[in-house]
Structure formats: C-alpha cells, structure tokens
Write a structure and sequence with these properties.
The protein is an alpha/beta fold. It contains twelve helices and twelve strands. It is elongated and about 75 Å long. The two termini are 13 Å apart.
Amino acid sequence: MENTSEYVLQTRLHALAASRQGKLSLYEEGQAPQGERVRLVWETQATEELIFTRLAVLNCAVAPLVRSNALKGLELVSKGQDNLPAAFDGVASLEVFPVTESLPSLRHPGLLVMDMDSTAIKIECIDELAAMAGVGEAVAEVTERAMQGELDFEQSLRQRVAKLAGADSGIIDTLCARLPLMDGLTEMLAELKAHGWKLVVASGGFTPFVGHLKATLGLDAAFANELVIADGKLVGEVTGTVVDADFKADVISRLGDEYGIKDGQRLAIGDGANDIPMVQRADFGIAYHAKPKLAAAADARIQTLDLRVLPFLLQA
C-alpha cells in the first residue's frame, strides 16, 4: 500500500470509528480480538466507497493491512452477530477471505510453489505452441478437459505433445521471448523475497519456459517436462520423469525440508485440477482464478484481483 493511500485509509477509519461510538473500533494487525474474522482486499476508489458504506452499519473491530503494493486491505472481527462475509455481498472488484485458521507469516521465511501456466503467466504454453504449429484447436480442447480434471494428466500431456511432432523447435524460443507474466506477479515475488521466502515454479509445462522464468525472476528452483528435439524439430514426445500432480505435490515436501522451512510456512498456488494435490499438500493452498475442482479444494481463492493479493493472505 502506498504511503499516501495508507494515510488516507487510516484517516477514514479513525473518523468512522469516532462517529460509531464504540460499535466500530480499531486494532493493529496481529492483535485481533476474538470473533469471526474476515479480510478484504480491493483496488479502486469506487469499491472503497461501498466498503465504507457497509462498515457504517456493522458492529466490528477493524485493522488496516499494510503491504508493499497499491492494493488496499482490511481485517475485520465481528463484535456481534453480523455475518461479515455476507455483509459485503454484491461489492464488485472485492476479494473477501474468511479467516478460520492461523495464517502463514509474511515476515518469516517461507516457501511458495507456483504453477506456471495461467498462474505465473497468462497463457497455456502448450496451447500457444500448438497454435504456432498449426494444431491449436485440437490441443486446446484436450488442455481444457485436463484442467477441468476430466482426463488423466500424463495421458493428456502425451496426447497433446504428440500433435506437435514435426514442428520447428524455433517456436520455443519465439514463445520464450514473449511470455506474458501474470498481473501482479513481480510485485508479489518482490515482497516475499524481501522477507526471505523461497520461490519455486513446478509446472506440467516445459523446461525452456520455466527456465526462462527462473532466470528472469530470480526464482530458487523450477521443474517442468522435457520435450524431445531432434534435427531442429519437435519429436512429439517428452523424456524423463513426468511432472504431474503428484510430482508437484512432492516438490512442496522435498524443498520445504531441503530449505528448512518451518511447518505452516509452505504455500502453493495454482489454477487447475492438476494442482489439487500440490495445494492440499501445502500448509496453505491458494486457488488463483481457478477451475471449480481446485477452488473447492483450496484454503483460499483469489477470484477477482491479481497476484498482489497473495501477501494480504499472510500475517504481517
């Protein structure tokens, strides 16, 4: 949160609390009183106005959440019978997170394992490669079914890769040069790095792309599948151990131990059904603009805003 917007938000909260005569009180993050707890994250002034309209009739305690990006956040604790999540129904461009357990700490080292396609980047790499190879529609249909959890991942991977046989391997370098990073990714990673977090990509995609992200973003590790290339052409096969759902889940445990990350500090974030084991293995699993099966399995769901939301899900 920028200093100016932080000051304005604090000023508004103090004024509202003074006008509510004890029905709305303020506290500092980390010192929440007992009660139902919820976190709100937003960006626009229009959303903020609606939030304050709802706060004006609630009986609750409020703490501002200060983070190193332009989003704004509040934590609320009910002081009465108000259903806090329901109190903000219908407010557009607002993330609402009920807090039902202890949150990981932002200010202590942790591990974040990210899916790549449609999480760390905005595209599905295999679909883009297929489009460049002239088989886009056939591959995209299989990708969607795999993301929804309708197909076995390894089976679907091999089926899709086979359709790339004969394509010029130069399409890989072309795509690497224009990988579109997910909105908010660099800000989110910078904030976690500042507190000593280990940052990892584990992807069912391909090694050239995760390698590019690792080098560009300064990640600690990256895992993906290896495409077979011969005579400058894609063979239509992958080699070595397939990075599937179970492999991604094992990355959480293996690197958590290797890096000496304490229990409670191991996070995962993804968007598709193939991320369910990883998200469930993590101490705190996050679904990002996710397919329904993953959303149902995760501890938290980012549904409206971008990756800058993630630090607001941690305890500062």
